[in-house]
Amino acid sequence: MKQQEDFSKLLADKLRATHEPLVADEALWQAIAAKVTTQSQRRAWPWYSLAASLAVIAFWTYLGANPAQNMSGHTPQIALISLDAELQHLLLTEPDSVEVALLLEKRKAMQINLPGSIEL
Amino acid sequence: MTDDLVRAAQRGHLPALKLLYQQYASGVLRLVTGILGSVEDGRDLTQEIFIKAFEKLPELQNVAAFAGWLKQLSSRMAIDQLRRKSDWAQPEILELIEAPDDWVQACDLLTQLDDVEELLRVLSTSERALVWLFAVEGYRHDELATLMATSEMAVRQRYRRAIVKLKATLINKVSHETARRL
User: Fold this and answer.
1) Which sequence spans correspond to the domains of chain B?
2) Which NCBIfam families does the record associate with it (chain B) (predicted)?
3) Which among B152, B115, B148, B111 has a CA at the least distance from the CA of B133?
């Protein structure tokens, strides 16, 4: 029995020595890292989608609760800014002209539909 | 130090995963290559083992047990792979026809042997796995019985049979070579 154990031990030593030079290299790690990254992205994707959906819902809810900031209010606001620029130019060049009077009327009308704008 | 590394790896921190790989991958590669008997298969399985280990890592409660947990996972996956092979079926336990006490001669022959892997080719896949796990990795008979889903007695008998087979092969090989020279 003792001799059999010696044989087993010797066999183990020889096998260990044969396999000792085996080393896990960088190429193997690259393959593992690529797979791990893909898996984690796949796991994270539903959460990103959910977060994006919640953000969209929150944005629309906010717009619904604040009519002054809703999307239809953005176009008149831009138009008002462009009208103000034109008016400012005319006030400097032809302050008493008919165009100035017309633009002032137009601005007044726009201002009624756009609460929060500065009254001239 | 390793515990902190394992905790960071549990959070999916890629540099921590890489450090764990650098620390343990060569050991895993040697273990599974030893069980499977092929470096190519060993590399493929090592890759699968680490992917599986990193996936299951957040479930590990005792981070200090990481090394043992990884070794157990590796052995189990290697045995599962062998089980899927056609020749895994456990061999019948035959009566051992043992020559007179020739273990001393076998030890001498084994010492002189250059290619020990060549000698192991006489074993079946399950015998090879058993020899590797018991002799090289130091698994106990009861642990091997659980791992291989068999009884402890069967493990003992199969191991002894495998060792006797190796001894007989060594002695026969030398007898043939001597006869050829004469």
Assistant:
1) 2-84, 103-181
2) sigma70-ECF (TIGR02937)
3) B148
Higher pLDDT, A54 or B75: B75
Q: What is the pLDDT of residue A67?
A: 58
Task: Report yes or no: B19 and B5 within 8 Å, Cβ to Cβ.
Answer: yes
**A4·B103 Cβ contact <8 A:** yes
Question: What ipTM was predicted for this assembly?
Answer: 0.84
Domain edges within chain A: 21-65, 67-115
Rounded to 10 deg, the angle between the A71-93 and A98-113 helix axes is 160
Residue B100 pLDDT greater than 70, yes or no: no
Nearest-by-CA chain B residue for A6: B107
Residues of A in contact with B50 (CB under 8 A): 32
With a pLDDT cut of 70, the percent of chain A lying above it is 78
Give the CATH architecture of domain B103-181.
Orthogonal Bundle (1.10)
Interface membership of B107 toward A (CB under 8 Å): yes
Q: What are phi and psi of B100, to 5 degrees?
A: -55, 165
Nearest to B91 by CA among B38, B170, B164, B162: B162
Q: Which residue is closest to B101 within chain A, CA to CA?
A: A3
| A17: helix, strand or coil | helix
